[in-house]
Amino acid sequence: MAETTKERTSTTADAVAARLEAYEKDEHLAMLRMMLLGRRFEEKAAEAYALGKIGGFCHLYIGQEAVAIGALSALREDDYAIAAYRDHVQALAKGMSAREVMAELYGRVDGCSKGKGGSMHMYSREKNFLGGWGIVGGQIPLATGVGWTIKYREQDRVVVCFFGEAAVNQGAFHEALNMAALWQLPVIYIVENNRFGMGTAWERVASLYDIAQKACAYAMPSLAVDGMDVLEVRSHVEEAVERARENGTPTLIEAKTYRFVGHSMSDPVHGVYRTKDDVEEAKETDPIKRFIDQLQEADLLTDDELEAMDDEVKEVVDDAEEFADNSPEPGDEALYEDVYADGDVNGRLFFDRRNRLGGDG
Length: 361
Ligand SMILES: Cc1ncc(C[n+]2csc(CCOP(=O)(O)OP(=O)(O)O)c2C)c(N)n1
Ligand SMILES: [Mg+2]
Description:
The chain has helices at 13-22, 25-50, 65-72, 88-93, 98-105, 139-152, 171-183, 202-205, 230-247, 276-283, 287-297, 303-326, and strands at residues 6-7, 80-82, 159-164, 187-193, 196-197, 200-201, 222-226, 251-256. It is an alpha/beta fold. The protein has a six-stranded parallel β-sheet, sandwiched between helices. The chain has a two-stranded antiparallel sheet with strand order 5-6.
């Protein structure tokens, strides 16, 4: 049985220096580029939404980038990730193209879900990004199922599952974690605690504020990390991934973070549940700015490199916007397509290790 651990993490100067040392310069720059891409991509999405080019729900991730990029940088390409509806940046960080994500936001045929899912349903089988789920907490038992599949197929893979803190009080969370710990499934559960579920503060709905402690009930390793620090997130997720690969030990990680934008595009940035000053104060911990400062203090990034990176990322985003704009809307016939699964997977379970999905999927 796994030991229950409750670690304290730190962002002291020594810890930061050690983490900066742990990766090559190009790895640091790749993480920073992905954070900038996520930010610029969503700024563009907000613009397009305001212009009426994107419809339906649209939940932005601005402020939380260090969590997705830190966590997903710790994975290999063949590992899986699954997320809630705040999923654009996770999709990009898992390797999906800005074009297919933007086209999905626009509801166009070249989107990753053929324009039928929209903002909450990013998905790529090729990149092992398993969505994009709109039901709060719905992806948590799904991740446990993916963990079970990995174990059953004896694969050397892990799955990272992202969800908000508001999902933690649901029964599904407890059932899923209990099974993962009991069966020793290679799942890393990452709670993105941005302090609010829509307009409800975590303290108003939680009998126990410290989310990491909840894993004690399942004898599962757990810890809290500073979710505004990409290197801190990455280093702790790497340890969890190692445990998961070695013997299938799951981990619960609470990433303390903050969203700088409204719950969705149709919600105000601040209002009854938080003040303008609260948001401005939180912005001082902007994860992108913090990472830039860390890199520059360590002489790993010049102003020119940063400017060139930002220009390149903006070009990628502009190209994605143009691509989405030019992609056609799905025709009426698309209503009847993809309603039921095709082929052998429909309605049958195979317990003889045949891989009915084909390939390695
Ligand atoms: C089962 C369920 N109940 C309610 C909702 C409505 N709803 C959508 S988002 C949300 C808040 C979720 O907050 P959290 O899990 O903290 O994620 P965050 O939005 O902060 O990223 C709620 C209640 C839903 N989508 N699904
Ligand atoms: Mg939340």
